[in-house]
Amino acid sequence: MNVLVTGAAGFIGSTYARMLLGSGPTGGPSVCRVTVLDKLTYAGTVDNLDLSDPRLRFVYGDVCDPGLVGTLMAEADQVVHFAAESHVDRSINAAEDFVRTNVLGTQTLLDAALRHRVERFVHVSTDEVYGSVETGSRAEPDPLDPNSPYAASKAASDLIALSYHRTHGLDVRVTRCTNNYGPRQFPEKIIPLFVTNLLDGGDVPLYGDGLNRRDWLHVEDHCLGVDLVRVLGRPGEIYNISGGTELTNTRLTELLLDACGADWSRVRHVPDRKGHDLRYSILDDKARDELGYRPRHDFERGLARTVEWYRRNREWWEPLKRRASEAGLSRAL
Ligand code: NAD
Ligand code: TDX
User: Fold this and answer.
1) DSSP 165-221
2) Which of 6, 158, 169, 206 gives the lowest tally of CB atoms within 10 Å of its CB?
């Protein structure tokens, strides 16, 4: 079987590709071949992939390119679609790439999947599509209410993916997960940004009052959930995937300071993100009951191991951070 994995030079997709070619995220039979399609934006690097593995084919290209996508789709049995512009702050600064890649790119893939009769298409969405959840938690049938341009572009692609099932009968499955953490996350998201700044002796920018809350999910648990959906899920269905550890940003910052041997003098209180969602929270009973999904990583141990990974792999993140900073890509890097 050939699985086309888009965006697998990035954080989550590369973890997924590695797991697919390893013992298999679900412990089931591993797939025969993985084709990666990735544009290598600032967030993607081939260093995340084992290019020496003959079962892995890397194709440099854009999910918005219908010619290339059609060629790859003709050879694919199944698709797992991770490719996206993924950082909320960037979408606030400039939304065009988000609409292009996340919306048009997803539609381009779906069209080709339909034309070439691909047997299964897993679309990786996010809990941000439900919007800020002040109290309680959202389940799959709840309405979408995205706030940032990133979240809105993901909500659009999520709905377009489902429309290809409802209209054309394409076997589309959608996952909506919480905030991922783990090795190889680009140092713009809060955990790797704070860890690498602290390891470099710098300070960390905490937005607003620090009381915004997120649920944390180890990237390998997310990939396990995605693969359970690919293998055992049902066509046309949506599955929430959560990690089960909800923290304020202040509490998370405390844990990161501790792990890096630093104190609160290193925290810089900076103006809040525009339209900053207070809280995300989802129920993942459906994935648990139907697919047997259970996160395997304990948060504190997973976080300690993640910090250790950044400590030991400076050669991975230093060039990325340098390039991003030279290109003026983030206010915080
Ligand atoms: P990432 O930014 O680390 O990686 C994205 C990858 O997509 C990169 O390798 C990039 O080069 C590639 N890409 C971007 N535009 C492309 C294009 N036009 N054509 C081909 N490739 C392109 O992102 P991530 O954190 O690994 O997220 C993966 C997916 O998971 C995204 O769809 C994201 O919305 C979703 N998600 C992420 C999180 C999280 O916490 N990181 C949470 C929920 C959902
Ligand atoms: O420098 C920072 N300071 C800070 O206080 C950064 C980068 C973030 N924050 C806050 C904002 C959020 O409340 O930390 C929280 C987490 O921020 P991000 O790491 O940017 O993640 P978030 O905005 O929650 O979105 C993430 O989870 C859902 C991913 O980036 C998305 O791709 C995913 O869909």
Assistant:
1) HHHH---EEEEEE-EEESTT--TTSHHHHHHHHHHTT--EEEETTS--EEEEEEHHH
2) 169
- In the reported structure, the alpha carbon of residue 194 is separated from the centroid of ligand 2 by a whole-number distance in angstroms of 11
Question: Residues 276, 134: contact at Cβ < 8 Å?
Answer: no
One-letter amino acid at 92 equals I
Rounded to whole angstroms, the Cα distance separating 217 from 243 reads 4
Report the alpha-carbon distance of residue 326 to residue 75 in Å, rounded.
39
Minimum CA distance residue for ligand 2 atom 34: 126
Nearest to 295 by CA among 304, 303, 287: 287
Does residue 207's CB lie within 6 angstroms of at least one atom of ligand 2?
A: yes
pLDDT(330) > 70: no
43 lines ligand 1 (CB under 6 A): yes
Give the Cα separation of 258 and 250 in Å (integer): 12
Q: Write the DSSP symbol of residue 103.
A: I
Structure tokens at 6: 């888009």
Torsion of CA 155, 159, 161, 163, to 10 degrees: -170
Share of the chain above pLDDT 90, in %: 93
Q: Is 60 a catalytic residue?
A: no
Sheet with 56-60, side-by-side order of all strands: 56-60, 33-38, 2-6, 78-81, 120-126, 172-177, 238-241
Domains of the chain: 2-180+216-241 (3.40.50.720)
Active site residue 150: yes
Entry pTM: 0.97
C-beta separation of 46 from 40 below 8 A: yes
Angle at 211 between CA 308 and CA 268, to 5 degrees: 60
For all residues of the chain together, what is the average pLDDT?
Answer: 96
Confirm if 34 and 20 have CB atoms less than 8 A apart. yes
